[in-house]
Specification:
Layout (H helix, E strand, L loop, with lengths): L9 E7 L5 H9 L17 E7 L3 E7 L7 H17 L2 E7 L5 H12 L4 E6 L8 H9 L4 E3 L20 H9 L3 H4 L14 E5 L13 H12 L3 E5 L4 H7 L6 E4 L4 H7 L6 E3 H9 L2 H9 L9 E6 L10 H14 L4 E6 L12 E4 L7 H13 L4 E3 H8 L3 H5 L7
Parallel strand pairs: 1-3, 1-4, 4-5, 5-6, 7-8, 7-9, 9-10, 11-12, 11-13, 13-14
Antiparallel strand pairs: 2-3
Helix pairs in contact: 12-14
């Protein structure tokens, strides 16, 4: 469970003012001293993440954030980091001192209602303060669940019953009741496209971008789902694809390729064999395939003066042949006949002024959770800016998008 990637963990964000006990609550929930606890306000600066397993949910990621009421220039930077966490939170915990409720709490509630994110209000420090009954009544009226706790900084040398752990039981139970549908019933990667006993060919090129000694995450996750479906996988590189197909007594149910070798795979795969890419599978698994396919069609309308945003969730050091920084810009430039202005953002950075871009081309989002990717698609749609992803865009540029979408019902 410790090695489960962040992108497929349930993200639980902890929000509130400075010094209301957010870090103490995280320490109590994880039963570890993850965050520094101090009587001085503003101890937490950058968001603090803790990956763990929370039964019966499974792998989760707790994120402790800076106070939303932080002050000064540095405080503004801290708040900006906190707002980034809003975008990837699956379940939000709003921690407030039991006797305090005001504009900051109202704003957090509004932000999560806007995002349709489940929210739990945690009234903390009930050993010192009483909860305002009017506030509780208002939350009940608005159907916002709430709970009262006393999350003290735990004494790790003490027995669990005396260490402050017992206050977290109710919080955990409340979180379980708030689990979003996307988490309880996640979309499949490939399982619904194949049957038990089918053969799937996975085309994985070994080039500069292939990590030495291992496969990249989307390839591993796809392979695992094939095995869970009780189907079988045949892994080849693009040079061995034709031979692999010829050696099979029965045609493969599906060929899944790395997007970078789409041209070779299109040429080597008979037209009656379904074909798609890992990135297109993840366009559906992490986002909205239909919206991303519509975005790819806008590539044909690009003009030399247009600005394009390349959004890369990974923060890896780019190599000379980087797909987002080099290959896709080169292919688009060849199509347009001139170089186009490309801007690159990485990690959780995503610009608010999207309207200045003519198109957004996103990576496969294997390092983001589904909540954050869907949020980015929604933001682009609200600004009227088309968005697509690497694999969908490359399929369009190689003239094979319709074929690559054929395996998905209703996408023909």
């Amino acid at each position: 469970m410790e090695k489960t990637p962040k992108g497929i963990r349930l993200h639980i964000g902890i929000f509130g003012r400075r010094n209301v006990g957010k870090s103490s609550l995280l320490n109590a929930l994880t039963q570890q001293e993850v965050s520094i606890v101090s009587e001085s306000a503003g101890t937490t600066t950058d968001p603090v993440e803790k990956a763990m397993e929370l039964l019966p949910i499974g792998p989760i990621l707790f994120i402790d954030t800076a106070g939303i009421d932080d002050l000064g220039a540095l405080g503004d930077l801290r708040k900006a980091k906190t707002y980034q966490v809003f975008e990837r939170t699956d379940v939000a915990l709003l921690v407030t001192q039991a006797d305090i409720w005001g504009e900051y709490e109202d704003k957090i509630v509004q932000e999560f209602h806007k995002r349709k994110t489940p929210l739990l209000v945690v009234f903390n420090k009930i050993d010192l303060f009483s909860v305002n009954e009017k506030i509780k009544g208002r939350l009940d009226q608005e159907k916002i669940p709430h709970i009262e706790t006393c999350a003290l900084s735990p004494d790790l040398s003490a027995a669990p019953a005396q260490a402050g752990w017992k206050v977290t039981t109710g919080v955990k139970e409340a979180i379980i009741k708030l689990l979003p549908d996307d988490w309880l019933n996640p979309p499949p990667i490939i399982a619904d496209l194949i049957e038990a006993g089918d053969t799937v060919i996975l085309v994985i090129p070994i080039d500069k971008e292939a990590p030495k000694g291992r496969l990249i995450l989307p390839q591993v996750q796809t392979l695992r789902e094939i095995l869970d479906r009780k189907a079988q996988a045949l892994v080849v590189n693009e040079k061995g694809l034709s031979r692999a197909i010829a050696n099979l007594k029965k045609a493969p149910a599906l060929v899944v390729t790395d997007s970078q070798v789409f041209a070779e795979v299109f040429a080597s795969t008979p037209s009656d064999i379904p074909l798609t890419s890992f990135s297109i599978l993840f366009a559906r698994f992490k986002g909205d395939l239909r919206e991303l396919a519509k975005g790819a069609e806008k590539i044909g309308e690009l003009k030399p003066e247009d600005k394009i945003l390349i959004a890369e969730a990974c923060t890896h050091h780019p190599i000379g042949d980087d797909i987002g920084r080099k290959k896709i810009p080169c292919w688009i430039g060849e199509r347009i006949g001139e170089e186009i202005d490309f801007e690159v953002v990485t990690g959780h950075d995503f610009p608010p002024d999207l309207e200045k871009y003519r198109l957004i081309i996103h990576c496969g989002a294997c390092m983001l959770n589904r909540k954050e990717m869907l949020g980015r698609i929604l933001k682009a749609k609200e600004k009227g800016v088309p968005i697509t992803n690497y694999g969908v865009a490359i399929a369009y540029l190689q003239g094979g998008l319709k074929r690559a979408l054929r395996p998905f019902k209703g996408m023909e």
